[in-house]
Structures are given as C-alpha cells and as structure tokens.
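From the shared-data thread, chain only:
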Amino acid sequence: MKKYLYSDETLFRNGDLFEIDYVPEEFHFRESQMKDIALALRPALHGRRPLNIALRGLPGTGKTTAVKRIFAEVEETTPRLVPVYVNCQTDTTKYGIFSRIFAALSGHPAPLTGIPLRTLIGKVGRTMSERGVVVSVCLDDANYLLPNRVLNGVLFSILRLHQEFPGARAGVILPMSTMDVKLPHSPTPYFGGR
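Structure, as tokens:
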C-alpha cells in the first residue's frame, strides 16, 4: 500500500506561507503605511501618549501584518511601550479587551470570571501609572465591535485612563476591513491595491 500522509511530494517549498498567522520576512508595497504607524507610535518611545490611528482597507491588504511587524520592532526596541494586539473577531467584549491589556502588562492572564470589569480596568490603569509604561492597543477588525456598540465604550475607557490614573498613557490603532464606517475626519493610512 502506498503511503500518502508523510510523502515528500509537494508543489510548495514552504507550506507555512499558507498559515493564517504567517508574517512574511519581506513585506512589499506597504512602506508608506508602516512609516505612518511608526510615526504614530514614536511619541511613546519618549514616554508620551502615542497618536491614535485608523487603518482602512479590504481584508487581506496588509493591515494586520503591518501592525504586527511594527509591534515586533517595538518589543525588540523598548520596554517603555507595551504593544497590545486584540483580535476583535474573538474578543468582542470590553472585559475581553481589557483582559488582553492586563495580560500584556502583567505577563499572566486575567481571571475569566469573578472580577468586576471596573476592578480589571483599575488594575490596568494602576499598573500603567506605577510602571510608567505607555500602552498602544491594536483593536484589529474594530468594525466587529460596532453592532453591539462596544467600540465607543472601549475607546473611551482606554483613552481616558489618565483621568483616574495620572501618568497612564495609551493610544489606539484601529484596523478596519469596512470602508463605510464614519470616523472623525483625519488622515488614515489606506491599504488598497498596490
């Protein structure tokens, strides 16, 4: 009987290229957008609040890859800026999003139950204030938070942490795969065709 499962016969040199979480070594045609993201984060390297930025483009145009590449560079460069990546297709609640932020700051996950949201937000704010770190939260596919009206509450809570916790500085990156969401007018990097 011929065996097929572990056969070395394949058309592809590297099957990892087809994995959904694959981040390419070379990322062509997105230099301008990468510079825009880096520019938005640059103030945080000096302990200041990063700029908020929206990334617009159809699915598969490089928004997530661009953010992940910049976040990887941040992690290699400085402990002063804590990048937090949140997939809003899976984390669709305010508690889920703040759990991701808490985990990035503390190094361990937040309890799944038994802790009020207000307490979790307080722990995040106090940690940021006491450690003097700046947080940049990427709410990837933020448009998934719109139907349940979660996005405004999340943005308000993240961007207003400094009011209750002096020295807590945070910025938000909003990659969105829909072009019909109305945001206040500001320049946003567009991830269209080449």
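The two ends are 49 Å apart (CA to CA).
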